[in-house]
Amino acid sequence: MTRAHRGRYSFRCRAFSSPAPCRFIPALSNNHQIDRIRTEARRRKVKVTIVVDVIHVLEYVWDSAWCFFKEGDPAAERWVHEKTLAILEGKAGIVAAAIRRKATTLALPEDKRGNADRCADYLLAKRPYLDYPTALTNGWPIATGVIEGACRHLVKDRLDITGARWGLAGAEAILTLRALISNGDFDQYWAFHLAQEHRRVHASRYALGVIPAPA
Fold first, then answer.
1. How many domains does the chain have?
2. Which residues contact 55 (CB under 8 A, 6 or more apart)?
3. Which of 9-23, 43-57, 106-120 has the highest mean pLDDT?
4. d(CA 94, CA 142)
5. Is residue 10 part of a domain?
6. Is residue 88 domain-resident?
7. CA atoms of 9 and 41, how far apart (whole Å)
8. Does a structural domain hold residue 70?
9. 107 in any annotated domain
10. Distance CA 96, CA 127 (A)
11. Which domain holds residue 100?
């Protein structure tokens, strides 16, 4: 992704009844991505709530399940369902402890309990970003599909059309306009644009920027 569409186009969250820019961010579990989000938030002086994509959490839970169950065992699905519900209820720390304890109780050797320990470590490391109860109570998305869909709509559907070739400046301009339209801000922007054009073309030619009244 080029600088033209990296973090520049901030959708307003339609899920919220607030006109303020979205400050809840579902994220992948990548540490670099989380660090970038926090850095941008500090730079813009806004407070953000980050929640890790629940699908990524599920991948770790499923991997840990195969430490305890044979592949294809229906009991594994029930176990994963139980642990996932507990995580969604905000009990990631308890789940991590239970997984590690189960591996110890079964006396699994190190080479057999690896995924269980990785899942427990992951849940504990990401616990600050697993506040699913708050997200679900507020109706916020807990997976990154909404962001991936926005990227497809905003960027791919326009820039990836057959035969198109883009320079940085042209792509930047088009994506800015698409973001303004998608956010419902185009009319406000256009009024600002006309005012700036009037200032640049006319008012800037007169002292103090004041255009004399016609005689």
1. 1
2. 143, 144
3. 106-120
4. 20
5. no
6. yes
7. 14
8. yes
9. yes
10. 10
11. 54-135
